[in-house]
Amino acid sequence: MKKVDLKKWLKETMLFKLNKYSLITIILAIIINCWARNVAAGFNLPFWLDTIGSMVVGIQFGAIAGLFTGAVSSLILVWVFDGLYLYVLIGAFVGFVVGLLFPRNRNKRDPL
Q1: Which of 31, 68, 84, 107 is deepest in the core (most CB within 10 A)?
Q2: Would you say the C-alpha torsion 82, 85, 88, 91 has a positive or negative sign?
Q3: What are the counts of helices (DSSP H) followed by strands (DSSP E) for the chain?
Q4: Is the dihedral of CA 80, 81, 83, 86 positive or negative?
Q5: What is the CA 49 to chain-centroid distance, rounded?
Q6: Taking Cα atoms as reference points, which of 59, 55, 58, 87 lies closest to residue 71?
Q7: pTM for the structure as a whole
Q8: Angstrom distance (rounded) from CA 67 to CA 23
Q9: In whole numbers, what is the pLDDT of the chain averaged over residues?
């Protein structure tokens, strides 16, 4: 059984480089989250779609980026639709967990 360097794994999973590509993707994901929430509310769907962008960013850029995207988009939705601030924590948690469970370089490193 191989020994996994936990510090290296956490650094690769959590951190991301903030450049133009990642910033544009995060902004688009926030817009997609807000749009998908409105689509789900408009069609009276029994589930919310406001974490799709957070999941994509979490997979693409890591757990911290997913957490940030989920928190910001949920905060915007809470302010616009007078929702509960608990949803900010839930959106951030979803982006964070998806970023941990589906790391960017899944084929390059050993799972824990």
Answers
A1: 68
A2: negative
A3: 5, 0
A4: negative
A5: 13
A6: 87
A7: 0.82
A8: 14
A9: 85
First-last CA distance in the chain: 11
pLDDT at 112: 45
* Calpha distance 64→95 (Å, rounded): 8
User: Nearest to residue 57, comparing CAs of 49, 44, 69, 71?
Assistant: 69
Q: Which amino acid is at 32?
A: I
CA angle 52, 92, 107 (to 5 degrees): 65
What are the Cα distances from residue 103, in Å, to 39, 41, 57, 83? 29, 31, 11, 31
Which tokens belong to 56? Answer: 């994509």
pLDDT band at 1 (very low <50, low <70, confident <90, very high): low
How do residues 57-100 score in pLDDT, each as one tens digit?
Answer: 999 988 899 999 999 999 999 999 888 899 999 999 999 999 88
Provide the phi-psi class of 81: left if phi over 0, else alpha when psi is between -120 and 50, else beta. alpha
Q: How far is it, in rounded angstroms, from Cα 31 to Cα 37?
A: 10
